[in-house]
Amino acid sequence: MAEETEEKKEYELPEPTNFIEQFINEDIKTGKYEARGNKIMVRFPPEPNGYLHIGHIKAMCINFGVKERYHGELNLRMDDTNPAKEDYEYVKSIVEAIHWMGFEYDRLVFASDYYDQLYEIAEKYIKDGNAYVCELSPEEITATRGTLTEPGTPSPYRDRPIEENLRLFREMKAGKYPDGAMVLRAKIDMSSPNINMRDPIIYRIAHVEHYRTGNKWCIYPMYDFAHPLSDAIEGITHSLCSLEFENHRPLYDWVIEKAGFAQPVPRQIEFARLNITNTLMSKRYLKKLVDEGYVRGWDDPRMPTIMGLRERGVPPEALKKFCQDVGVAKVYSVVNIAQLDSCIRDNLNENAERAMAVINPLKLTITNYTGEEELDFERNPVKNTGTRKIKFTGSVYIERDDFALVPPPKYKRLVKGGTVRLKGAYIVRCDEVICGEDGEVKELLCTYFPETRSGSSAPSAVKAKGVIQWVDAKYGKDAEFRKYQPLLLDEQYPDQDYGERLNPDSEKDYYGKAEPFLAETEGSFQLMREGYFKHKAGDPLVLTEIVTLKDSFNK
After folding, report:
1. Which regions in the chain score pLDDT beneath 50?
2. Which of these is catalytic: 249, 258, 267, 283?
3. pLDDT for the residue numbered 465
4. Is 7 a catalytic residue?
5. How far is 451 from 428, CA to CA, in rounded Å?
6. What pLDDT, on the 0 to 100 scale, is given for residue 5?
7. Per annotation, catalytic residue among 258, 273, 423, 453
8. What is the model's pLDDT at position 497?
9. Active site residue 437
């Protein structure tokens, strides 16, 4: 009885959280995969022609989520059918990105693994009368394909004898013809209302060295041919892809059917891709930014690539939470970037250690303080992780904006004759302001009140409305602060080149002071009243902004 209960538990379906899982549950309930033990198998199939960006994270979460919820398997497959743009560098970056996100695949495979098998299937198409060699130019093929309201015009080569098609295709493979001289087209329906079904190209000539197969091949399969067949060869049960492939689904099914694969064949399910305001979501444009030197590389902290987000200090858990909150939809939409920032901020607020820095320093000297001491500074009040020690000598730097000669209304920071609390230290009163010949404030001379030390239980008559951060003048370190804005200034308008949207102020450098703790520690920190920043080991001390403190997203 115990064994029977355990067996039933193994096939217990998870409660669906989206329409994709509803479809999978239906397929399992109908017994579609009983012969294979109801084993669900999916794949994540990026093309190795660039670094993965945040848009890929949604597809990643969906596919790996299905693998985990259904105790299935997942292939990481490099769809490498375009040798002119692909490279091992991109393969390595994709694998690294997936591991950094915390996902594990079952096997790494390549579309190029199947080139021999794909070629044999192409010959089968020809022998079955389902493909032909066409000598029309690319422009002629486009011109004869028709429109959404008018059928296409059949190619004059459409009814070539099978033997002639086989001979020409084998000569294409042997390298007899130059690029563009001819292609292999599927023979489907030139009057189909779906333009994708109007005799699409399935093989083209390209005398280009492939990063894996070298010069073995000079003909390469097209994506719409190689992709469904790779799914079928691997035994994929559900091909989960973005919405732009919905119109390709009839072709996906046709390609697998004509190849003669046994049932059950893969089922394609489409979901809306992730689009974020002010964010480039195209590898082609991101590569252009790298090639033209607008950014320092694919991992520049301004880049929406996974490696760029990692370099910036964004936690992978925040990215997963963002995708979870966005959800899986069937309708195109654009997500405000403020929602992403909010997820990052929530994660860091809970996990980041607190520290102090001043980006625009102003010297403050306490005239009645001598010596030095160590003060307790709270590490993370959210998790209550205790305190660490910070040095205090009575001469500090504060943020220049935390003092005003002529304060605006409701100003709660330091003014001449006014008081303010130095975070974790004492209340001080500004007695004198030293200005330079240009009228700029150079130094503040202040009095401190010993009984106001933070954590002291002794009562004090001295009160302060504001609390500001500071860095000790003796022990503080010179620091560079890099602040970021989106790479794109605005939404895209029709016929507008992406270059017109680039933000010239996407990165700005500032130079200030930071407590020595930051120079000694790697990681992500909340700089009090400044924002969340990351420090990566190195000299000089450089702190890169992850996200601001202010949350503009309406939860």
Report:
1. 1-9
2. 283
3. 86
4. no
5. 11
6. 45
7. 273
8. 74
9. no
